[in-house]
Amino acid sequence: MGIAADFVLIVVAGLAGAVVARLLRLPLLAGYIAAGVLVGPNTAGPTVSSIRDIELLAEIGVALLLFSLGLEISIRDMLVVRRIALIGGPIQILGCGAFGWLAGQQIFSMSPAEALWFGAMTAMSSTMVIVKIIDERGVSRTLASRVMVGMLVLQDLAVIPLLILLPQAGAWSGAAGGVARSLILAAFLIALVVLLGTRLLPWLLRRILRWGSRELFLVSVVAIGVGAGFAFHQAGLSFALGAFIAGLILSESEFSHQALSELAPLRDIFGLLFFVSVGMLFDPAFVLRHTGQILGGLLFIHLMKSLFIGLLARSFGYVLMAPWIIGLGMANIGEFSFVLARAGIRGGFLSKETYDFVLTCTILSMGLAPVTAGLALPLGRWWRRRFPPPKHAPLFETPRELLRDHILVAGYGRTGRAVAGVLRAAGLRVVVIELNHAIFNDIRAGGAPALWGDASSEDILRAAGLKNARLLILTVPDAGVVRLAAERARSLAPHVPVIARAAHVRLVEELRRMGAASAVLPEFEGGMEMARQAMLRSGIGAGRAEEIILQVKERYVGEGG
Fold it and tell me: Could you give phi then psi for residue 232, rounded to 5 degrees?
């Protein structure tokens, strides 16, 4: 059956790997990569026969993932991080590349030319992996995530001149023209996508929606994403970058949320293909022969990149947990390192042994990325306990108003905006804590008191006047942030009641044990209200309807949930 049999094998293996990963409490992508190792050509057992065809399909997965990321992150969000992306991005590439070049010669005994390629590859982080981690954790709209995405876009763009410059390391002056042409072409294509995305595509999607066909809408959205990617690819640029820019442009339209929900299942299946295809490149025999060298390479890459990028983020004014999240989140190397490595070995600039070494480090680095990123918050909290910041440090922008007898609302998404709106209509004083800087600016522009920062930070809670507050309402969707914010609120101000949003039933019980006055499941409460309306319209009395709803609530989430 050819590629059809390979596809079935990959999906089944990916499912098995994902189940094992979930049982071990690991991210799904770790299970996908492990599945790829098992069905790859370097291990015994069932083997994928058409690896090249699967790799081509996997490129579509990368494009769809970045297209969906573009839909989720608006241009306004990206403008907030333009300074570190446009200035810090090149500094990061040059700095990490220089350290990699030195280490290639001094530690890994490479020639200066090979070390130059090694430095360029270590400077690249995995856009695919980082985006997947951000998506799984539901933190795509946090400031640290937007910084990482902004720097990743610069890295992806940098691959184009690197592919031109590296083969001509001894004659870079002759390559300047090629780099200039590529950059001009990229600027032209971006301008074209912006023009089409703001003028033609919204009009086209409105026409399609009038026909009432969800299937045609999905096909249109996918065509836009892969079509933009293909246009960039034909111009010698990045397929995935074109898709990301198309998604970014469409994110400003009214279709972004529906497009994202329609695209998600297709994106996840093709994304699985990518991570399995990465695992198929892994050769356990090479690892056994060069264990010490590979461990040294991984240690150097992760330590060097996490320190350099974290300190770079701190130098651009990012404080609290952001430098830790950005540094450790981008400590891996990724898919564009494959592109550079293949160009290097095809042109005779890399030996087979160096190529295998870089390939193995890249795969292992991508597999370890979720673990490395997960260390950011624990290490950051330990550091702040050990070395607390000076009391006068300007870590956040505080409201100018006197904070007393107010209600704190942490998070200003759809839920937080609704809560704050109702409380203000009732004549109550509301102060919002919001980490998304673009949303924070909108709140302040409207004249409402707000504070920019992470609600799980003790400093932010103090600055928001928690001890003098009437109530703290946590509407943030991130379960980890809610849990930590509730815990710290009880420690700082045990007399202030906490009403918290819960992502799942287990968190309801956990929040109650921590002393929260109430824990609410928004989706569950919405379902209960719809059921109440249905019972009333079916002839069941209001009293009986409320009694049934209370029984169901007690059964699923306990009384008061």
Answer: -65, -40
